[in-house]
Design brief:
Structural class: alpha+beta
Strand content: 15-25%
Number of strands: 4
Order of helices and strands: HHHHEHEEHE
Number of helices: 6
Largest sheet: 4 strands, antiparallel
Distance between the termini: 18 Å
Length: 158
């Protein structure tokens, strides 16, 4: 599906405010309501818009201690990566995980109830068959910038 500047702008706006009214969305992209809404429906039907959700401030519900962790595995083969990634998927305290290059294998965000709870989690991983060679812990002291749950049309330029 080919997207034009109107489609990209619709996606940008909806990724920041999924509750925007049809008329405000149409006004923001300089189209009338009907063509704008037809574009939204087309993007939904194509699976580009998968759904609408709310950003939840978890800290307002439950106090967690965010910790970033660098993980380096002992072995670098498909089975080791798959075993570790399965462990990450089965650990609810892990809220983000990315595989990276450049000296470490993974960056992980852990939202633990406390530093003690975080350390118990790491200790359990170290005594399991997770295959962790070494890890580095970074305690979050404050959040400077949180990414929006979306993108900019500039992401597609180039």
């Amino acid at each position: 599906m080919k997207l034009d500047r109107y489609d990209l702008k619709i996606l940008e706006i909806l990724s920041q405010d999924g509750r925007i009214t049809k008329s405000k969305l149409a006004e923001a992209i300089n189209l009338s309501v009907s063509p704008c809404w037809e574009r939204v429906r087309r993007l939904e039907k194509a699976g580009i818009i998968e759904g609408y959700s709310a950003r939840i401030n978890a800290a307002a519900l439950v106090k967690h201690t965010p910790v970033w962790v660098q993980i380096e595995l002992q072995a670098h083969n498909a089975a080791s990566f798959a075993r570790f990634e399965a462990l990450v998927h089965d650990t609810p305290e892990v809220t983000e995980c990315v595989a990276v290059g450049g000296g470490v294998d993974y960056l992980i965000k852990v939202e633990a109830d406390s530093i003690d709870a975080y350390q118990r989690l790491i200790d359990a991983w170290l005594t399991s068959d997770a295959g962790i060679e070494r890890y580095f812990t970074y305690i979050v002291t404050k959040s400077v910038k949180r990414p929006p749950m979306g993108f900019s049309p500039d992401d597609f330029v180039g």
